């Protein structure tokens, strides 16, 4: 097994040290020994070493909590789930520990750089009911974005096109002529000099959909590091948050039939000031 692990992982881990520390385990949690015979189709599990993650500025506010769901107001730069270089600094890891809910799971995603309302199920038994709402597009989402004002931009305007994002690619793209899979209603809400606040009502949830749709209209969201052009920004640079806020979430509760509406406490423009670091309120 040592020879196999070194063949697969020598460039990513100190295999000898991890074997000695019994950090490789089989399905039954028994440790992998260096001289164990190699057996095909065997799963080996391990925890990778994590980098020291800087704390994300801003406040992670709990807007609502009951037996079935938790709704939070996520700051920019905090990942929804552990991913890539962001593990501890994620909503799921922080709240599972802070709230004592080991099965807490998000029912939808917000980009790491997007702020606002996020709904999570408290236990596995509630996931199916709430996930079904999102899958059937029965959740009404409202976003607000700060972007350049254009006198020529009609309001409201509905953008409909086909968005594709390849696995591993940082950016999504619009595929001309392909079947429509993304739709957003965009309305001018207020003007702020050369900028404007736009109300965005998506009926689909494609990756980077709102960012692509506004950029395609010639009004890219302020602070966007990907659209219309890629900006080289460190993942630990929290100084210029994307001015995109998931401001409202409305749904009919699938368990008790009650009407629920959750509203973000944040307002545009969003700041990257590290005034308070992730308290649970």
Could you give a quick summary of the protein structure above?
With 281 residues, this protein is an alpha+beta fold. The chain has helices at 2-9, 15-20, 91-99, 124-135, 209-216, and strands spanning 58-65, 69-74, 105-106, 115-121, 140-148, 157-161, 163-164, 173-174, 182-192, 195-202, 244-252, 259-263, 277-280.
Give a quick set of tags describing it.
5 helices; two-stranded antiparallel ribbon; globular; alpha+beta; 281 residues; eleven-stranded mixed sheet; disordered C terminus; single chain; 15% helix; Pseudouridine synthase; 2 domains
Describe the protein:
It is a single chain. With 281 residues, this protein is of the alpha+beta class. It folds into 2 domains: 49 residues, no CATH class; 223 residues, Pseudouridine synthase (2-Layer Sandwich), CATH 3.30.2350.10. It is built from 5 helices and 13 strands. The strands form 2 sheets. Strands 1, 2, 3, 4, 5, 6, 9, 10, 11, 12 and 13 form an 11-stranded mixed β-sheet that branches. A two-stranded antiparallel sheet has the order 7-8. The longest helix is centred in the middle third of the chain and has 12 residues. The protein is globular, with a radius of gyration of 22 Å.
């Amino acid at each position: 097994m040592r020879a196999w692990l070194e063949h697969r992982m020598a460039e990513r881990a100190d295999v000898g040290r991890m074997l000695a520390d019994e950090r490789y385990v089989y399905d039954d949690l028994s440790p992998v020994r260096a001289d164990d015979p190699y057996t095909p189709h065997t799963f080996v599990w391990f925890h990778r070493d994590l980098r020291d993650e800087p704390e994300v500025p801003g406040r992670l506010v709990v807007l609502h909590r009951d037996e079935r769901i938790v709704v939070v107001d996520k700051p920019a730069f905090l990942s929804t789930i552990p991913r890539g270089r962001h593990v501890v600094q994620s909503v799921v890891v922080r709240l599972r520990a802070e709230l004592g809910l080991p099965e807490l799971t998000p029912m939808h995603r917000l980009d790491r750089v997007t702020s606002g309302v996020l709904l999570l199920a408290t236990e596995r038994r509630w996931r199916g009911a709430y996930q079904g709402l999102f899958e059937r597009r029965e959740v009404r989402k409202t976003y607000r974005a700060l972007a350049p004002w254009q006198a020529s931009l009609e309001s409201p305007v509905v953008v409909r096109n086909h968005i594709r994002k390849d696995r591993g690619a940082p950016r999504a793209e619009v595929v001309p002529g392909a079947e429509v899979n993304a739709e957003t209603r965009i309305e001018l809400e207020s003007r702020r000099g050369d900028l404007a606040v736009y109300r965005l009502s998506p009926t689909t949830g494609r990756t980077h959909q709102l960012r692509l749709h506004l950029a395609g209209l010639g009004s890219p969201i302020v602070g966007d590091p990907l659209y219309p052009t890629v900006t080289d920004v460190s993942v630990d640079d929290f100084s210029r948050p994307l001015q995109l806020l998931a401001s409202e979430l409305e749904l009919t509760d699938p368990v008790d039939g009650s009407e629920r509406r959750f509203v973000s406490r944040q307002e545009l423009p969003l700041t990257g000031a590290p005034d308070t670091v992730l308290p649970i309120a």
